[in-house]
Design a protein that fits this description.
This is ABC transporter ATP-binding protein. The chain has twelve helices and ten strands. By secondary structure, the protein is α/β, with parallel strands linked by helices. α3 crosses α6. The structure holds adenosine-5'-triphosphate.
Length: 276
C-alpha cells in the first residue's frame, strides 16, 4: 500500500454460488482524490462497494484502509464498525432518504450516534445538561452547513420527499458528509439526473474534494460526470479490471472502448464523451 493511498483492494474475489462477480481484483484509491469504478452493467462494481462497506464478506482478498485515525482490514469488520470507526460512508443506487422527515432532520439522523453518546444514551439529554445541548447545537450547525453547501438551506424545513430529484440526490451526499467520513463511496449519484443537475453534482463533489480533502470512490455510468471530475479511473468487465488510468487515458484506450459497451467503436466513443 502506497503512502498516499487511503484504500488498497488486493486480490478481491466475491462468488455467489457459481457466479464470480469480482475476480481477483486489485486497485488503490489515493487520499484526497476522486477514484472512479466504471464498467458495463453487471461488471461487479456494486459488489466491490458492498465488500468495502461490509455488506458482503468477500470470498477472498484483503481491503486495507488507512487514514489519520488508524489502519484497518475492512474485510474483517462489520458494516457498523466500518462506518463508525473506519469512517467509510456510502450512498446507494436508489435514494434512501426518510421522505416524510425534513431535509434538516435527515441530516440530524445521520448524527444520531454522536448525539446518543452526548446524551449519555438518553438520560443527560432528558435533563438537557449543557454538554448535551452543546452537542445538539454542533449537530444542527453541521447539518445547516451541509444544507448551505448543497444550496438547500432555504428548504431545511421541507419534507425531503417533496424536494426535486436532483436535490434529494445531493441531500443524500450531504447526509453522508455529516458523518465526517474519510472515504465517501457513491454508487451512481448521477443516476436519473438531467444535465443541469449533473453539473451541480460535479460542482459539489469537486468542492468536497477541494475544501474537505475527503477521498471519494465513485461508481458512475454518466461519463459527463466520470470524465470531468475523476483523478483516476478503474474499468471493470466481468469482475476483472481491464484498464486503469486518467480520464484521458481511459477515453483513448481501445480495450475500454471495445469492452465497455460491447458496441461498435463510434457508438462507444460517443458514450465515453458523454454525448448520449
Ligand atoms: N447478492 C447476489 N447474489 C447473487 N448474485 C449477485 C448478487 N449481487 C450481485 N450478483 C451478481 O454479481 C454480478 C455483478 O453485479 P453488480 O451489481 O456488482 O454489478 P454492477 O457492475 O454494479 O452492475 P450495475 O452497473 O448494473 O449496477 C452480476 O452478475 C449480479 O447478478
Amino acid at each position: 500500500m502506497n503512502i498516499n493511498d487511503i484504500l488498497s483492494v488486493e486480490n478481491l474475489t466475491m462468488r455467489f454460488g457459481g457466479i464470480v462477480a469480482v475476480n481477483n481484483l486489485s486497485f488503490t484509491a489515493e487520499r484526497g482524490k476522486i477514484t472512479a469504478l466504471i464498467g458495463p452493467n453487471g461488471a461487479g462494481k456494486t459488489t466491490v462497494f458492498n465488500c468495502i462497506t461490509g455488506f458482503y464478506k468477500p470470498t477472498s482478498g484483503t481491503i486495507k484502509l488507512r487514514h489519520s485515525d488508524g489502519e484497518w482490514r475492512l474485510e474483517r469488520l462489520n458494516d457498523f464498525r466500518i462506518s463508525k470507526i473506519a469512517k467509510v460512508a456510502r450512498t446507494f443506487q436508489n435514494i434512501r432518504l426518510f421522505p416524510g422527515m425534513t431535509a434538516l432532520e435527515n441530516l440530524m439522523v445521520a448524527q444520531h450516534n454522536t448525539l446518543m453518546r452526548a446524551s449519555g444514551f438518553t438520560l443527560l439529554g432528558l435533563f438537557g445538561v449543557p454538554s448535551y445541548r452543546a452537542a445538539e447545537k454542533a449537530a444542527i450547525d453541521l447539518a445547516r452547513y451541509w444544507l448551505d453547501q448543497i444550496g438547500l438551506l432555504e428548504r431545511a424545513d421541507d419534507a425531503a420527499g417533496n424536494l426535486p430529484y436532483g436535490d434529494q440526490r445531493r441531500l443524500e451526499i450531504a447526509r453522508a458528509m455529516c458523518t465526517e467520513p474519510a472515504l465517501l463511496c457513491l454508487d451512481e449519484p448521477a443516476a436519473g439526473l438531467n444535465a443541469r443537475e449533473s453539473a451541480a453534482l460535479n460542482e459539489l463533489l469537486l468542492k468536497i474534494r477541494a475544501e474537505h480533502g475527503t477521498s471519494i470512490l465513485l461508481i458512475e455510468h454518466d461519463m459527463s460526470v466520470v470524465m470531468q471530475i475523476s483523478d483516476h479511473i478503474n474499468v471493470l468487465d466481468y469482475g476483472v479490471k481491464i484498464a486503469d488510468g486518467t480520464p484521458q487515458q481511459i477515453r483513448d484506450n481501445p480495450k475500454v472502448i471495445a469492452a465497455y459497451l460491447g458496441a461498435d467503436e463510434e457508438e462507444a466513443i460517443a458514450v465515453m464523451e458523454g454525448e448520449t
